[in-house]
Amino acid sequence: MPKVIPIDGNKLRLPGVRDRISIIGPTGSGKTHAALWHLGNSSFTSRPWLVINPKREELLEGVERIIPMDVTDEIPKYPGLYDIQPLPRDQDAVQDLLIRAWDHENVGIWIDEGLMFGDGEGVEAILTQGRSKKCPCIMLMQRPVWVSRFAVSEATFIQYFGLSDKRDRATVQAFAENLPVDVPLEKFHSQYYDIPRKKNWHFKPMPAADKILDTINSRMDELRPQRKVI
User: What's the mean pLDDT in 135-164?
Assistant: First the structure.
């Protein structure tokens, strides 16, 4: 079940082990901080999470005990965070990795740069059938119109930092009808939308990077290296 936390008296759900969240916004909007915050609240202490990190995101360098992994390696047997840094030419290898994760089940997926790897057989399997496979997914994207339509249509949650292109806004609102995509947002503010419940929350800027990293690193202490994923 998704985590539930109180926000101004309302119950806000965070993504659980069957959910997909799409984090949408232009460069510099704060979406990477948001994605890292969601990763810190994810199920990486009970299943492996594959962190597909083509940009070599600097924030991830502060995550202690993150395990380097090659895109062609076997799916990990143990919980934790696994840092994969594919090159643009690794399109097919990334899709194959996602198919193998889908087949394995109980594997979380974090995808930076949805534009680069957010379309293809593997990612569509995760987005459309990940719920039954218990393969949660966090995907970042700048242009929804250039990513698989399933990234929005099959999302359980959307965190939206604003977009200037009306085609992108229309793509998002087609599946999140109550999300106020035409309302301007202050810098680093976002709208957090629970699609099944059609509820929206306005988020102020996410916590500072050091606080997010502290949460992730403290949760690393919950990991038991000898314990395989059930």
Answer: 92
